[in-house]
Structure formats: structure tokens, C-alpha cells
Amino acid sequence: MADDLRIAGMTRPAPVAFTFDGATLRAPEGESLAAALIACGIRRLGEGLDPARPRAALCMMGVCQQCLLRVDGRLAQACLVAVRAGMVVTPA
What we know:
The chain is mainly beta.
């Protein structure tokens, strides 16, 4: 968990573990999945049609759908999903 990328002095829920593409990560429960991945150093969320233009979290409010991932086997936008313990996240 990259605490240096989060606002200092804020009270947060305890961090929980989840997996992204096979790696175990930790983030405060309830934080948006997109924000958690960014704070953990993950910027590239998947491949688009052009490998030179990977998908990433762009708008952070559910409009662009560039952060589409599979969360526990279902397609979801990372910016609209809250982190919870044990979730399994893979590129879409």
C-alpha cells in the first residue's frame, strides 16, 4: 500500500487485501478500486485495440469506461467499484 500517495492525516478504514492480475495488493476498504490501483503504482489497466494506447483510469467518474476490469469475474469500471477484502481483479 502506497501511503505516500494518500492524503496525510486522514482517518481511513483498515487496509484489506485483494488481488490484481495475480498480485496481492492492500488498500483501505471502501476506497475506489481505480484510486487503490493508482496508489499501488498500477497505471496500465489493460490493453486497447492499439497496444501503444493502453487502458487506464482517466475520468475517475464512470463516463469514459477506460478503466474496465473484471472484478470477481464480472465486467466493472474500476472507478465505480469499492475495494473489499478478497476481491479478485483481472484485466478485461
